[in-house]
Write a structure and sequence with these properties.
This protein is α+β, with helices and mostly antiparallel strands. The protein is 34% helix and 36% strand. The longest helix has 20 residues.
Length: 203
């Protein structure tokens, strides 16, 4: 499984008109199905006069989760070409939603496939991609006497601190690039003279 993968740089919109039908595509980075479905619901609510709100998304560095929906278009003419375009471009953790307003002229199956897949491709071109590194959550448990300095040093290195919890000891949760888990764990042990306990969380 790759250590990094491309995803869209941010939410973006692009619209085309084909034979008087409007196709409005929104692409956005997402990390789970709940977020992807929420975007679909939001856009459906924003455009109640649309004929169809079709979507596709790919989640996970290995594209383990792939979903698409035609929302009433003839089977395989909307969601499937959208999904194929996302996979063809290699993007992950990405959702595409295409809202269509029917213009009165039927496009046929081939025309729909080209329209839905094409507008997703054009939107990806406009938005661009960024490289996202696969990370795991590292949980560090350390004494109060060392916690403040350790947290400061971790942030100074550019690592993402997900949360800090104070109890009898301090727990710091850190997003760590998977390939660097062992090295960062060793640095934490060295910085705390071996008093910190580290645990890599599943997932």
């Amino acid at each position: 499984m790759p250590d990094s993968y491309p995803t869209v740089a941010g939410e973006g919109v692009h619209e085309v008109e084909i034979n008087r039908s409007r196709f409005r595509c929104v692409v956005a980075p997402v990390t789970d199905e709940t977020t992807a479905r929420a975007l679909v619901a939001r856009l459906r609510a924003e455009h109640p006069t649309a004929s169809h709100t079709c979507h596709a998304y790919v989640l996970g560095a290995d594209a383990a989760i792939r979903r698409c929906d035609d929302d009433g278009e003839p089977g395989g003419t909307a969601g499937a070409p959208m999904l194929r375009m996302l996979l063809h471009r290699g993007v992950r953790d990405t959702v595409a939603v295409v809202t269509r307003w029917f213009g009165g002229t039927k496009l046929g199956a081939g025309g729909l496939i080209r329209a839905y897949g094409g507008v997703v491709g054009e939107t990806l071109d406009r938005v661009g991609t960024v490289e996202r590194r696969r990370t795991r959550t590292l949980r560090i448990t350390v004494g109060h006497d060392r916690a403040g300095r350790l947290e400061h040093d971790l942030r100074a290195e550019g690592l993402t601190v997900l949360g800090v919890h104070h109890a009898s000891r301090v727990t710091i949760e850190l997003a760590v690039p998977e390939a660097e888990l062992e090295e960062i764990g060793a640095r934490i042990a060295d910085a705390t003279s071996g008093t910190a306990r580290t645990e890599t969380l599943p997932g």
